[in-house]
Amino acid sequence: MLPIVARRLFHLQELALGRPSFRILAELLESERWSPERLRQLRLERLQTMVRSAYDHTPYWRELMKTQGFTPEDIRCLDDLRRFPLLEKNTLRERREEMVWRDEGKRLQLVRTSGSTNEALQFYTSSTREAQINAARMRGHEWVGVRRGEKELYYWGSPVELCKQDRIKRVRDWLINDGLTNGFEVTPERLRKNYGDWLAWGPKCIFGYPSTFVLTVTMAESLGLNLKELRNRGLSVIITTSEMLSDVDRKLIADGFGVPVRDSYGLREAGLIGHECEHGTMHCMDEQIILETIDPETLEPTEGEGELVVTNLVGPAFPVIRYRTGDIVTLSQEPCACGRTLSSIKISGGRAVEFVVTKAGKWVVGYSFIYIARSVPGIVKFQVVQEKLGEIFIRLAVDERFPADGIELVKKKAAQRLGGDDEIHVEIVADIAPARSGKYRPVISKVAEELYKKRSFTD
Ligand SMILES: [Zn+2]
Fold this sequence. Notes:
Bound molecules: zinc ion
Radius of gyration: 22 Å
Structural class: alpha/beta
Low-confidence stretches: none
Shape: globular
CATH superfamily of the largest domain: ANL, N-terminal domain
Number of helices: 14
Number of domains: 3
Mean pLDDT: 88
């Protein structure tokens, strides 16, 4: 599809879904160069409007403000935000139904976070909020030279079986120049095929998880596939998301594909938080969010470095105010060579995702187990552990919604996903403790670690 036509079709799709994403994009491309004072004024106005509507339309926030002894009128400067207590994940989980404004915007939906780093979480979103996120994402891509309508390949996960809706989505994606390659289960055979498909389609940008790119580059090398060929077919940038991108991995991916790697950072429940510009600075979406840092032990505010706390200014259907993310970051106001006045963020706490390897030599991305955890109710946390080849343990922490045949269901779905005769054990545990680093690891595989060290990939 011609980029200009694809862009137009995407625009129409957004309007049909009640999302003025392109209008917001145009605004964002202006405000990113405003003076700090003007930007601060916009954020204060948005904060005041958001707090007002939270008070007027949601019992949880109204009750909270009353208990804390203040009203929306008391929010007079950005620092007044600190009158709100921190919002814990558990509160969001337990009081969700009292936090939603059901009549806001269009297409109110209950959605779920990936739950890869923390326990999966459900929250509400609406057309208003989705339009803001789509616009912010489009702006980030424009910063690194990719305009909506140009060919973007999502190296991503996909469900085990395609339903009718997925098929319709495939056609729609083709019309708007979005491609999809399954990046959840990488095998040498599939990589050869994907490589051929990518050369034929010629994406301008590939978007996916750092771990999948690292595996792809390493495997391609051992198979003799030259990923740099994709440059001749138009590839100009790799954009990563969802996991910690280390400097070592960034270099490995950039060397493998021969194009720059740009990172982005978002949390489904809080919005898109940062996107790297052409100079490699990760700028914050200051028009849409307010970021703070705290000491994770004492919960006292810190100057720049600490646990990230997010307030979303543009999602009135489900206000998220002073939400503790659990991610460790450094915030900065230092100017960037690109001239944008937005602040910037560096992520220092890892969000590493790993693989399990099947007897048949298939590398299955940890994220793919999220689809399984999502499809069975009542799974609060999960962890996949692989000590030796051919044997996989899935641990689940569940609540009362978990069905009687839940274990069998998980086993069946995991077998489908792994697609071999690997032994799968599913057990219910009281809780899943984080690793010593304090980070929750969804997948721990000694097998994958050892094979990866030896670069041992078999067909
Ligand atoms: Zn910049």
